[in-house]
User: Fold this.
Amino acid sequence: MKSNRNYISLLVVILLGIAMAGCHHRMDTMSVAGKIFIKKVDKTAGKLDLNADQMAKLEQLKVEIRNNFQEGQVEEKEAMAKIKKEGSKDNPDIQQMTSVLQESLKAETQRINRAFDLLMEYQKNLNDDQKKKLGQMISKRIGKWH
Assistant:
C-alpha cells in the first residue's frame, strides 16, 4: 500500500516536472499569445478599410490586448516562482504545487477569453459592410480547418 502511494507521488512529481519544463520561461505562452492576437488583428484590419476613428480605436484595442497579456506574463512568472520555491524544498507539498499550476492554467485561459471579449467589443465600431466582410473572412478561415 505504501509503495503504491510512493509510486503515485513519484508519478505526480514527474508530471509536475514535465509541466514546469513546458512552462519554462523560454516558452512564455502569454507573450506568444499576445503577439499572435496583435498579428491577426493587424492583418484583419488591413483588409477592412478602416476610417481614422476606427484606426484610433484599433490602436487602443491593441494596447488593451498587450496590457492583458503582459499582466498574464507577470502572473505566470509569479506562479512558476511559487512552484519552483516549493519544489526546491526537502519535502515539497505536491498538492500545493499542483494547485498553483492549475490556477495558472485557468488564468491563462481567462486572459485569452478577455482578448476575445475585447475583439468582440471592438467589432461594434465597424459599419455593416465591414462586419459582413469580417464575417466572410472568418467563414473562409474556418472553412480551411480540417
User: Anything to note?
Assistant: The radius of gyration is 21 Å. The chain has a mean pLDDT of 83. The helical segments are 2-22, 29-45, 52-87, 94-122, 128-143. The longest helix spans residues 52-87.
